[in-house]
Design goal:
The protein is an alpha+beta fold. It has a single domain, classed as 2-Layer Sandwich (Nonspecific Lipid-transfer Protein, Chain A). The protein has 5 helices and 5 strands. It has a 5-stranded mixed beta sheet.
Length: 117
Amino acid sequence: MATKEECRSALDTLSGNLAGANGDVRGAAALDRSLSCHIRDLDVTFTGRLADGRIHVLDNSEGPPREKAQIRLAMTGDDLVALVNGELNFAKAWGSGRVRLEAGFRDLLTLRSLLRS
């Protein structure tokens, strides 16, 4: 089971990957939205912003998200690490329910390029 520190590191790696992305992925990462990522097996939520093509983690707290972010993710710590390491396909994990992504309809349309990557 991934630790809280490994999950935070995975989010930092994902942020770096987004910052270096090109094309449609870069466009999707350019959104400016509040973001939460609930790690279900650890029952911890990382909160921050997707802005300037990066994920800026501002805080973490025990339990589910306290406030409703504009983009909300939920998954296990192992799945987060596997996604970032390229061992788990996001679209397949989302389609099977291993990863939950909630956002407004327009944001989902914009984020679809991330789902295909």
